[in-house]
Amino acid sequence: MTASKSPNSSHTSNVVYGLGFIGAAVYYIQMATGFWAGVIGFLKAIVWPAFLVYDTLTFLGT
Predict the structure, then answer these.
(1) What is the pLDDT along the chain (62 residues), one digit of tens a residue?
(2) Which end of the chain is more exposed for a tag (fewer CB within 10 A), N or C?
(3) What are the domain boundaries of the chain?
(4) 60: burial class by Cβ within 10 Å (0-12, 13-18, 19+)?
(5) Helix (H, G, I), strand (E, B) or coil at 7
(6) In whole angstroms, how far apart are CA 43 and each of 7, 9, 27?
(7) pTM, full prediction
(8) How far is CA 55 from CA 1, 15, 33, 48, 62, in A?
(9) Please, are residues 21 and 48 in contact by the beta-carbon 8 Å criterion?
(10) Distances from the Cα of 26 to the Cα of 14, 22, 23, 57, angstroms
């Protein structure tokens, strides 16, 4: 048996993540003051959902 994908599966979450990644990368790289700060900004852009969830939970006080 092989696992198959549903032909009706939605890729909306991939699009949202991709657009978020591009936006975060542009933001963090614009704010960078040097090359290595830009590299760190790019790495932060990859994991932006983790920052979003952390800040949301901190704001909610949970």
Answers:
(1) 566 665 555 677 788 888 888 999 999 999 999 999 999 999 999 998 888 889 999 999 86
(2) N
(3) 34-62
(4) exposed
(5) coil
(6) 33, 29, 12
(7) 0.65
(8) 42, 22, 24, 11, 11
(9) yes
(10) 18, 6, 5, 25
